[in-house]
Each structure stands twice: as structure tokens, then as C-alpha cells.
Amino acid sequence: MKLSCYLIVKNEENRLERTLRAAAKVADEIVVVDSGSTDGTLDIARKFTGKVVFHEWKSYCDQKHYAETLCSNDWVLMLDADEVLSEPLVDEINAFKAAGPKAGAYNLRIVNMYPFDDKPQLFSKSFNVVRLYDKTRCTLPPDKQNKDRVFVPKGVKIGQMKGKVLHYSLLSLEQAVAKYNEHSSELMRMMRQKGRRVSALRLYVEWPLRFVRYFFFQGYFLAGTRGFMQAVVLTTFRWLKVAKAYEAQLAEEAEKKRKR
């Protein structure tokens, strides 16, 4: 059985090589879709694959769906540029390829990594989502409302991989601020498309409530100062989404008044 791995990238020279080096251990084909990198991202990608394609940015879902369509093999693995397959997962996927699938899709557990760490902290936050799947039966839809989740039709069995994907989301505060500023704008647009309105009161309660959730209930306090820093960054990202949506409402109302 052959496997394609696809990624979307933009200005990922600091993380991409580690991701592609691990992916190359399991993938028979790697597809990289770029949306306009200006650093060394493309040079790194071309070290691992000849299938590096530019696609103009519309949304995360549209970009990933396009990458999926470029995959030559039925079975695909979807990764982000900041996600690295652990060695146990590499072995597990290769064994899966040799034995053949027992399900139409597989969940992978993605574990958050703190900057400068080589292994996950105890109780690190993780999420379990479909990333390995048969694209003739499942797909990542281009719909912007989808939040880049693979659609698995009813009746298609979902298996579970035991090995972990290491998620190096944050490299530095500077990188985190740039990333979450862009991502919060994307989420704000999704809120606006759904017609969701934001009250002024939410601007005041969103930050403290989110911080308590991240720092205490999601266990970031267990990582000490670094956990505190990540909780602050994540909280601010969520607050920015709400604040940008509120700002867009004000702009829309001002435009309506201007046209009267």
C-alpha cells in the first residue's frame, strides 16, 4: 500500500525540515502547497519532494482540500508544518502500510510541545483527530466553516493510531504573536459568515475566563512559567478573535449609517 502526505505552508523555514524529514520515513509521495513564502521554505520543501505547488490563499480548508486533490495515492496523511511524527508512530504507520487498512480512517493523537523540548511534558494538552484516511471515502471539504477537519461519512470505521504526533506550535513569542494574529482574523471571518454577533460584555469576560480555562483546567500550570506564557498567548489569541469580530460589527454599522 502506498501513502501520500500533504501539507500547506507559508514561511515555515524554521520548522518544515524536521516535519518533512519524519514524514519522508512513511510517505511514498509528499505534496507541499505554498501560499506565497518569502523565506527559505520552498528550498527546504524541494529537498524532500518535487511536488511543490503554489495556490492562492482563500482559507485553511480550501488550501488543504486543494493539497488533498493533488495526492496520487488513495491513502493520505494530512500534517501541518509544525507537526512531527514520533518514531513510534513512524513504525506504526509503516506496519499499517505493510499489513493493509482495517478501517477507512485513523485518528492520530497530536500532543502540544513546549519550545526547546524534545519530548512532551507530563499532562501536555493533546487532541485526537482523523489525519490518516482513504480519500476515496473521506475528504477534507473546502468549506470555510469546516475548521480543517476531515469529513468521515457515516458507516466508515475510524481506527486509532497509538503513536503520537509532536506539535511544535510555538517557537517564540514573536512567532506566536504573528501566527495567532493571522489565525484570529481567519476565525473572525468564519464567525461573520455564520452571522454570529458579539456583545460588548464578552470583550470584558473572554480574557479572564479563557485564561482560567487554559491555565488551570487544561493543566498549563503544571509546566510552570512556560505554561503560564503559553496560556497567556492562547488566551490573547481567543480574545483577539472576539475583539476583531466586534470591531467588524462596528464597521458594518457605521457603513450602514453612512449610506442612509
Note down, in words, how this protein is organized.
The protein starts with a strand and ends with a helix. The protein has seven helices and eight strands; from the N terminus they run E-H-E-H-E-H-E-E-H-E-E-E-H-H-H. The model has no long low-confidence stretch (mean pLDDT 91). It is of the alpha/beta class. Strand 2 (29-34), helix 2 (41-48) and strand 3 form a beta-alpha-beta unit. The longest helix is centred in the last third of the chain and has 36 residues, at 224-259. An eight-stranded mixed beta sheet has the order 3-2-1-4-7-6-8-5, sandwiched between helices. The protein has helices at residues 16-23, 41-48, 60-69, 87-99, 173-193, 200-217, 224-259; strands at residues 3-9, 29-34, 52-54, 75-78, 83-85, 105-112, 126-134, 158-167. The protein has two domains: 3-167, Spore Coat Polysaccharide Biosynthesis Protein SpsA, Chain A, CATH 3.90.550; 173-259, no CATH class. Helix 5 crosses helix 7 and helix 6 runs antiparallel to helix 7 (224-259).
Please tell me how large the radius of gyration is.
20 Å
CATH superfamily of the largest domain: Spore Coat Polysaccharide Biosynthesis Protein SpsA, Chain A
Supply the number of structural domains.
2
Distance between the first and last residues' Cα: 63 Å
Q: What is the CATH fold-level name of the largest domain?
A: Spore Coat Polysaccharide Biosynthesis Protein SpsA, Chain A
Number of helices: 7
Question: Based on the structure given, which CATH architecture of the largest domain is correct?
Answer: Alpha-Beta Complex
Strand order of the largest sheet: 3-2-1-4-7-6-8-5
